[in-house]
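S1.2 Input.
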Amino acid sequence: MIDIAKFEIDDQLCIGCSRCIKVCPGQLLYLNEEYHCRRAAPDENHPCWRCQHCLAVCPRGAIQIFGRDPEDSRDPVSREDASYVLDTLILNRRSHRRFLNREVDSAMIRFLIDLLSNAPNYRNRQSVEFTLVDRADQMIRIREDLSSEIASLFGNAPCLLVPHSPAGELYAEFDQMTAATYFELLCASRGLGAVLVPFPKNSAVRTVLGIPPDHITSMMIGFGWPEIPYARSVQRRVGDTRIHRPKTES
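S1.3 Output.
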């Protein structure tokens, strides 16, 4: 067993398949003379991205990293099950602006936010932070402190999530919008309604929500239990005129 930054390999389980070596974005892994995985110390040219790809790809569960045991990971679902559920979820998601006056369980919200650490983000920097309002009474006070035009953006949502990042982070807005999109789908999977709206270019909103002045933000998500359920999906498709292909010489 070796221990570099909490990286551990069980030589009894490692079969030297090299999958972990091929997927490591930091190029830190290699096989020793006995064809067992080993990990070099990270440096500026080869940093650890903290992506846990090595843990996830090992077919024998031989790798632990950052104290994470592969036994605690979930196995993938079948392609058939996953595609039908995800297709149906996307087909049935709607923007909600009318919500019940009902609290959302705080443990559920925290679990959904933790899942956002798996959303794609630049070099797995995990730079997105979140301002969360998860109490209806607090949300009412926030609305009272904002203009009616701004407060109406997220309807009467009892909860609000605002992704934001320190200024200077590369692709920060991309990471925020990706996290917001994932969060909306996670809400839909639990029966929660959500609405994504652009963050107003208004300093009063930042002040009321307590977002750090040196952070940038582009989106916010109002969410809660929907007042009006939808009975079925809509039927849309991307028209051919919206699909463009580059023209190349034959």
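S1.4 Remarks. Strands lie at 8-9, 29-31, 37-39, 63-64, 129-133, 159-166, 193-198, 215-216, 219-224.
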